[in-house]
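G., the chain you wanted modeled:
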Amino acid sequence: MFRRVAVLAALTLTATVGCADKATPTAAPTSSAGPTASPVAAGPPWYDDVAPAAAGTTVGPKGSACPLSMTFSVPPEWKVKAVKAGTDYRAGPALLLCEIDAKPAGHIGFLRVWQIEGATPLDPQVTVDKFLAEYSSKAEGPQYRRTKAGPLDSYEATWTEDGSRKRAIVVSTLYGQLMLSLGGMDDEEFEAMLPAYQLAKSSTNLPK
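Predicted structure as tokens:
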């Protein structure tokens, strides 16, 4: 079970290590699981009609608080912090690299960046399912789709946990896969933070 990332005991969603590794570039994942395609889907569960927040901080550039193999923007009030690698910050194949705290913006929740380690399965749904199996024993009703994070191929999942919706997106980069996850204390917080998630997703790109 994933530990040490609960917020206020009620919250259930590179550092320079990991992101600096020069792994062999990988191809975008393929899948035979047949998830839904990625048409615009207003309202739950995907909320594609939610507009991105205004950009502030860029996460991921070399020399920043959290250098990664991709970059993306978050609102200016959100606080970016690298997480030191360790087994206590792992859930399945995902190793936590970076936390972006919404509390300075008045919300209780996080965007988190995870590095997907080990051999990449042909089916990215396997990656997400293994993550969820250790991240939370209360994940219910997961749904999946192929989509884009900026111009990059990605695979998105949404699920509920104690009645509150969560979201994660696995992004293919030149040096493997990263996953961005969003979770809040309840559905109200989740929906309030969705514009930040939409900003991160739409602004994702490879480092310049």
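The beta strands are 57-59, 72-74, 79-82, 90-91, 94-101, 109-116, 139-149, 152-161, 164-173, 176-184.

Shout if anything looks off.
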